[in-house]
């Protein structure tokens, strides 16, 4: 993408209204309303289990803008783990520094997590992508990125467990996740 076009789209993204999460995916600006309590609870369940396994020198971050100008994307995962040194970078955090992207699929825009981010995250360099989908009562882990796709996909139902690989290396318990109602 032309760097000037990217700059203009990114400038538009930064002028977001309060209460919205705004991302950039190529020529698209993706805007979403603030998440529901079920979304937030499921995210908290994930984060609580990841915390004891967080590698030294990393911290959890929710709703940080992670950018990859070379693929014209700025994404804002529900949860990621970043090296502590990123605080020196300000708001422009290179996506390839993240250890994982975790998304809880909203009922209003599932295509963003299942299509746009499945396309963008491997290109941006996320080594792991964990998708919690309360609509389908599933958790999907994508790993082994190679350019434009992930080579490994593991899907489990709520109530089961899924092995989270290094650098976290633990079994994520899916028994407490809450599906969307209605």
Could you characterize what this model shows?
Helices cover 23% and strands 36% of the residues. With 182 residues, it is α+β, with helices and mostly antiparallel strands. The protein has a single domain, classed as tt1808, chain A. Strand 4 (66-68) and strand 5 (73-75) form a beta hairpin. The model has no long low-confidence stretch (mean pLDDT 89).
Rg from C-alpha positions?
A: 16 Å
CATH topology: tt1808, chain A
Strand and helix order: HEEHEEEEEEHEEEEE
Please name the CATH architecture. Answer: Alpha-Beta Complex
Q: Which percent band covers the strand fraction?
A: 35-45%
Biggest sheet descriptor? 6 strands, mixed
Which structural traits does this protein have?
alpha+beta, 3 helices, 182 residues, 5-stranded mixed beta sheet, single chain, tt1808, chain A, 6-stranded mixed beta sheet
Question: What's the SSE blueprint?
Answer:
Blueprint lengths: L2 H12 L5 E6 L2 E6 L3 H14 L7 E4 L4 E3 L4 E3 L3 E5 L9 E2 L6 E4 L5 H15 L3 E6 L4 E9 L2 E9 L3 E4 L5 E4 L9
Parallel strand pairs: 4-7, 8-9
Antiparallel strand pairs: 1-2, 1-5, 3-6, 4-5, 6-8, 9-10, 10-11, 12-13
In short:
By secondary structure, the chain is of the alpha+beta class.
